[in-house]
Amino acid sequence: MFVARFPASLPYMPPELADFLAALERTFMDGSLVKLTLVPRTPNAEPTLRRLVIRPVALRAGPRLAMIFHHATRDETHNLPLDAARQEIANRLTREFGRAYLFTTAQVLELERSDSGEFHLRRRPPEHATPADWRHDRVRHYLLDPRVPWLAALGVTHPDGRVRESRAAKFRQIQKFTEILSHQLTGLPIPRGEPVRLVDMGCGKGYLTFAAWDWLHRSGWKTRVRGIEARQDLVDSANRIARQLGCEGLEFETGTIASAALPEVEVLVALHACDTATDDALARGVQAGVAVILAAPCCHKELRPQLRAGPPLDPLLRHGILRERQAELVTDALRAALLEWAGYATQVFEFVSPEHTAKNLMIAARRRVPAGPAEGRAGKVRALAAAFGLRTQRLASLLGFPLVEACAGTAKPREPDRA
Ligand SMILES: C[S@@+](CC[C@H](N)C(=O)[O-])C[C@H]1O[C@@H](n2cnc3c(N)ncnc32)[C@H](O)[C@@H]1O
Fold first, then answer.
1. Stretch 73-100: mean pLDDT, rounded?
2. Closest to 205 (Cα-Cα) out of 161, 176, 179, 173
3. Distance 200 CA to ligand 1 centre (A)
């Protein structure tokens, strides 16, 4: 039995930890293991340690688990046989690591250790369709080539195309965004000769703006990509890089999400625009009638003070952290429902794994053609708002949608404004 093999240094193994390690062993043996990631608690005894990533590798000496310790400025790898690796993982999970994610082709297992030392095990649908490549010297295939010069100019990669250790999470985010953009655009009814114009609202340094331009450009679309950003210094530096590298059809402008000019645009992107700036971006996209909107919201403050819930749901809001999380969920559910009402088929999904960032939710909306009847959708928005006592919300106001029934009148999605 598995428990018999538990390291002697730990006299009792909590069942959740035993299940987790058993799943690691099973998937290592049957080949369905993708990787295991351990996230340290903060603070911990090794302040430079960022995470431990474990992958199966086939070495001449036999199958091993490569344990890659990612520190702030360096990586350290130890290849261990299964038994030794399992013992090491068990010991570390009761000390410096607070969370662990086991990625397999069948599921994601998430193990969390609370401050009181209790383990909680959760299961999620798989995020990977193919198991790990066991080759020691495997070549990675990226949708976005890490050797493109703009990634180096933005400090994500070294000049030779190696991803900087400290920017690995950013690189993964850029790759994932490119993948999502490619999926969303692949089915669009836009012939290759026609332009795909994209605007990135609140583009910051322009990581995703460059990525979108690069992918569109390489995929043969006629394209014009614009980044809108409030900070002049970021706009200047992004324009300088775009000019130096000859990125034709890519430009950055100083402006605000709410007021920047929005001429003909097919795709609107807004990632991590703070609080209601996401609503401003969504409303601009709807009002301009763009074909695709991709938004990753962050810091949801607006609805927190308004949220109410009657019995039996009132415990959802009793504690500060629950109220905060509930506000995030309700805000994004309301945004998705409003986009549906406005004629957009909307999906909400995890953008990058929560092991990398908590700001990991993506709202992807595609304009329905034809839009279809809106009435049933208006009722759904109002029912959701009523269930949580909401009277106003920025996106609803910007779209001219009264959340409260008494003054609901006959709100209809507005015809797109073509500036
Ligand atoms: C967290 S950063 C995200 C940058 C980029 N979208 C990304 O995900 O890499 C948010 C950026 O949006 C800009 N920003 C926030 N509110 C804005 C607004 N209302 N109009 C224009 N830019 C805004 C900030 O200056 C900042 O550079």
1. 87
2. 173
3. 9
d(CA 89, CA 73): 22
Atom number of ligand 1 nearest to Cα 280:
19
Q: Tell me, what DSSP letter sits at residue 316?
A: G
Residue with the nearest Cα to atom 14 of ligand 1? Answer: 202
Percent of all residues in the chain with a pLDDT value above 90, rounded to a whole number: 50
By most ligand atoms within 8 Å of CB, the mutation choice from 207, 229, 294 for ligand 1 is 229
Give the residue from 332, 340, 338 showing the smallest Cα distance to 278.
332
**pTM over cut 0.85:** no
Q: Which residues pair with 157 in a beta bridge?
A: 163
- Segment 218-228 mean pLDDT: 89
Q: How confident is the model at residue 71, as a pLDDT?
A: 77
Helix (H) or strand (E) holding 67: strand 62-71
pLDDT one-digit tens code per residue, 286-307: 999 999 999 999 877 888 889 8
Alpha carbon distance, N-terminus to C-terminus of the chain: 69
Q: Three-class SS of residue 240?
A: helix
**Average pLDDT taken over every residue of the chain:** 86
Alpha carbon distance 257, 254 (integer Å): 10
Every domain of the chain with CATH number 3.40.50.150 lies at: 149-407
Distance in Å, CA 202 to ligand 1 centroid: 3
Q: How far is the CA of 253 from the centre of ligand 1 (A)?
A: 12
Kindly tell me if the per-residue pLDDT of 312 is higher than 80: yes
Residue 5: the pLDDT is 37
Q: 375: CA distance to ligand 1 center in Å?
A: 34
Query: Is 415's pLDDT higher than 90?
Result: no
pLDDT (tens digit, 9 = 90+) per residue, 253-275? 999 999 999 988 999 999 998 88
Task: Tell the burial category of 162 from Cβ atoms under 10 Å away from its Cβ (0-12, 13-18, 19+).
Answer: exposed
- So what's the pLDDT on residue 210? 98
Question: Which CATH number is correct for 149-407, 3.40.50.150, 3.30.70.20, 3.90.550.10, 3.40.50.720?
Answer: 3.40.50.150
What gap in Å lies between CA 401 and CA 381, rounded to an integer? 9
Closest to 262 measured CA to CA, from 313, 220, 201: 201
